[in-house]
Amino acid sequence: MTWRVGIDIGGTFTDVVAIEEETGRRVYEKVPSTPWDPSESFTNGLRGLKDLGVSPDGVELVMHGTTVATNAILESKYSEAGLVVARGHREVLETARQTVPGGFGNIAVWEKPPRVVPLELVREVTGRLAHNGDELVPLDADSVRAVAQQFKDMGIEAVAVSLLNSYRNPAHEQAVRDIFAEVHPGCFITLSSDLSREYREYERTLSTCLNTALMPALSRYVSQLGNAISDTGSMSQLFVMQSNGGLVHDSDIAIQPIKAVLSGPAAGVLAACTFGEAAGEPDLITLDMGGTSTDICLIEGGKPHMLAEGRIEHYNIKTPMVDITTLGAGGGSIASIVGGESLRVGPQSAGASPGPAAYGKGGTQATVTDAHVVLGRIPEASFGDGSIKVDREAARKAITENLADKLGMSAEEAALGVLRLASENMARGISLVSVARGRDPRNFTLFPFGGAGGLHAVRCAEIMQSNKVLVPVAPGLACAEGLLMTDLRADVVYTYVKREDEIDLADVQAAYRKVAAEALSAANREGFDPADTGVETFMDFRYSSQAYEIRIQLDSHFGDAELEMSESDWAAAIEEFHAAHQRTYGYSYKGQDPVELVALAAAGIGQLSRPPVTEAASKFATWEEANLGNSDVYFEAKAGHEGGFISTPVYARAGLPVGVTTAGPAIVVQEASTFVLEPGWLMSVDKTGQIHATRG
């Protein structure tokens, strides 16, 4: 038997899914995360599979989603790094952008984000390239040697190199790397031209600095994971999920860790695409709520929206990524009183240790999970792998002492306030990926996953006036499962700025083929059959009076298909840009402002086989047979339904009746998550085992 294993490390739990290649049989495991050393929970999860019948020598591929890079950026816990720039550009990180978050009218005081590399560790070298890449001033090798020696003497082991206009011509940066290899061997080096071949000096330099500062930690981390795999007796290859929704070898992510900043969340989006297609729901809004945060993404026509440039905390990162909005709202988010009378939820989290008070591991602060427990919305006897028991008294004490007593209300009222606020925060996140992008959330199905997504899904749908919710078979492990449902991917982007009335189509065609060939070459290096390698192509457009662009997908080519761009293809791309601008912003400047091509992009794809979505085995013929018993659950009053505790049926997820409808309220429990069906809603199970909930 051959197995494929996905391991996703979250803030509270580490999720493991193993799929048998031949049959599609799934094995699920959930172990506590170890924030002090993420490789420890990776090892624990991998070893635990043996007890579940997965032999290490049968594991062929291990796919991993990690938050190591993300957390390092969020917490500013990365290695000290130096920066080499062209003479006269020492303050490029200070210059940054003039944009103020929220607009000048909405913020009283704003400080620019902290520097990744302090000014005292920036060094200038002599040499200059023109805007088109031509050499104006030769690179002074002696100035580079002096800088390399300085960094060596200072003990700086990671250096970023970002020279002016190197995206047009990498020769000077490559020469800097060669000199550092002689003078300061073993130093971690990132060239901006290796990381990004796009203009905008600040974003390119910032991304290069972040990548460099992350390299030492990520190199050690992937080495530890490789050792963990070997220690189990497996000879498996290790792949890491990138922010763009594709996999890459662990050795590649050690060189360019910036590409993994949204590693885990991107995998969950890929799972949603697969399960949504199987359920006949190609238009989704995902709600991935874990213990620490909630990630939200809009999927349209079975594909997520992609960004040419993403943002993590204060930093704009120049790397392709799935368009995901992250909120500091998870099951472990701490609820507190601000200003003596205002309730706040998050962004601080109780994490994996001690976790919510309900975990019984010493936590005393009130969390979202504790609110659910107080209201009876988590009737299951345990979390995760069964090692964490629900302590209802501890949860009630935490809510009472931290919130209810201070607000002069009952524990139930305080707990309900926590859930209201958490759901409203998530609804605002849903609005950011839908309404703010010109999409009506009522036309999309909400797809909740993560350990806590199902607890809030129906309430969020009601706030957004959406009528449908789709819950996958194993929502608590969807990110780990999504790791097994994607391909290897290598993105290449080149700046190419031309107005449509200045375009030479033959020149565009040549550049188009060059970018696609480079992306395809990256996929071919992995040894795939030519029939399984291909390339997806994109163009970034804007109106000539604008500063930022929209990415338009052009085509996909697999096997021996030849890349061509005819005049009709070019015209169709321009028309699609006008339509995309209209969808996103509610207007277009068609016929008023010339369109400007900004960049050519391509993604080289190495296709992996897709594990089948198996059909559900129905154990019960009716919902009454599946009922584990009734439990008192507190629901908020709304039109047609009184509030308070209601005797509510509790169902075990495994073996639910297929094709039979039941009405809420109801609770569906399984090992890694809980789904709450509010009064006024209906639900049924389809042939793939997914729950379809609709407003009654």
List keywords for this structure.
five-stranded mixed β-sheet, 17 helices, Dna Topoisomerase Vi A Subunit, Chain: A, domain 2, 29% strand, 696 residues, globular, Dna Ligase, domain 1, Nucleotidyltransferase, domain 5
In short:
The chain is of the alpha+beta class. Helix 4 (141-154) crosses helix 5, helix 10 crosses helix 11 and helix 11 crosses helix 12 (411-433).
Summarize the structure in words.
With 696 residues, this protein is α+β, with helices and mostly antiparallel strands. Among the domains are: 3-73 and 219-260, ATPase, nucleotide binding domain (Nucleotidyltransferase, domain 5, 2-Layer Sandwich); 75-218, Dna Topoisomerase Vi A Subunit, Chain: A, domain 2, CATH 3.40.1360; 488-606, Dna Ligase, domain 1 (2-Layer Sandwich); 623-695, no CATH class. 31% of the residues lie in helices and 29% in strands. It has 17 helices and 37 strands. The strands form 11 sheets. The chain has a 6-stranded mixed sheet with strand order 3-2-1-4-11-12. A hairpin with a 3-residue loop joins strand 1 and strand 2 (13-20). Residues 382-386 have low confidence and may be disordered.
